[in-house]
Amino acid sequence: MKEFVYNCVSLSEEDFTQGRVLFETWKPVARYAWDAGIAIGRYLRELKNGRLIGVHCPNCGRVLVPPRMFCQDCFVPIDGFVPLQDTGTVVTFSICYIRWDMVRLEHPLIPAVIAIDGASPGMGILHLLGEVKPEDVRIGMRVRAVWKPAEERVGAITDIRYFKPIE
Amino acid sequence: MIREVAIVGVGWSPFRSITPDLSYKEMMYEAAVRAYEDAGIDPRRDVDSFVTVAEDFNEGTSIFDEYTPDQLGGALRPNHTITGDGIHGLAAAVMQILTGHFNIVVVEAHSKASNILTHPHILAYAMDPVYNRPLAFHPYAIAGMEMRRYLAETGTPLEACAQVVVKNRGNARLNPLAAHAADLSVEDVLGSEPIAEPLTRLQCAEHADGAVVFVLADGATARALTDRPIWIRGIGWANDTHTLESRPWGEASYAYWASQMAYRMAGIKSPRNEIDFAEVDDTFAYKELQHLEALGLCRPGEAGWWTLEGATALTGEFPVNPSGGALGEGHLLDCTGLARVLEVVLQLRGEAGPRQLEGAEIGLAFSWRGVPTTSGAAVVLSN
């Protein structure tokens, strides 16, 4: 192996601060404001009202959530919005010990897909579970949305704080 | 080509400066529904593959490929997204059909330029980060430098560049899809505020939102589907060196090589005589002139005078950008090239309404990916 090891030293922080290693930096500024559109725009408005809604496909008859203007299976336009319950069943979940930016969490987040009551089987929304010990969460667990107070809701998915187990 | 390929369906979501009513998915769906209705197909049953053209930085979403299938009817089907101009996507679809494994392929591109709040930053990000970007001038100055060199080498007058704007935004008045129709004079254009001299504001295409979808089919399938297929006779693309320090500033060599590839495939020996009209990238007004020369449609230095004489007008001997081009329709980011092709298809079908050209049989579409690129793509179509 020795013949493959070059005669060199590893870089230190000083090599950068004292300019022995030359480099260039740039801070990107990438900001966007995405048009929510008809379906998701209505979804967000109803979240602000403290309600979950889905849409109905006239072809396969399914109730789809989150709303969209077309059924991706049938490729036909939906024919209306449908009120849904704010209760549902845990389809799958994870106990997540890192935040999105890789910061380690003492109290884990519990992201879950929740099949919403009133929507067709397999139709759920992605959210978080709360007021439950990680070790107690199960697939098939019945849960209910915990909403922010009306005056704090802004028309965003975070208007629901989390879903908690139904006693 | 070893297998014939035709465009059998076209669809769009109209080009507008802002589209707050629709999400990009709903815009794509609108364009797709039109294209499938036009082709008489059901995407869930008939389409073998879907090609989309999108750039993550323009979308604000990484790995944008994930977000394209549903609104095109492509879930659980072959899908892929490429970065490039729309005509690069068209080329990808043509190649898929040429393999013999796909008979019907869909191509989509769109723009939600109005949703990008820091577009100058996104554009600056295209510059070399180590030895160009720190100089901190707006990338449009690259167009300014190129324009100056082009004008100097060819003796083209500034008025010719301005006339391109007058013509294209004027043509757009006859195009219901166009976002930036206007009745301008040469004085208006040259008198607008300087952006990067000699480039003035009105010589730069403004952005627009919109979407375009095409349905492509092999020859036998195309003939079964429609009695008015628009044939893709040749398609080509080329890039020059990216280095700003050593590229040929006066001429658009990428356009020459891209078009030569397309002409070779199409069997075109004398483009000026064999092609009836063209939709040519005009992101900056001088680019239309520089591209016309590189595409072999006139001699170097001739395009400006040609334009001033009215030869490239709607009623001229060789109409260029009857749609209004990017100056008139709006610059649609990755979708700009498909907007050029859409107009060629509508003209060849005889569906261009008040701007319909008489007896158009062979048309050329050429796109460029904008500053600071030397990325071009060309396609020759016939009815």
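qc> The radius of gyration of chain B is 19 Å.
qc> done
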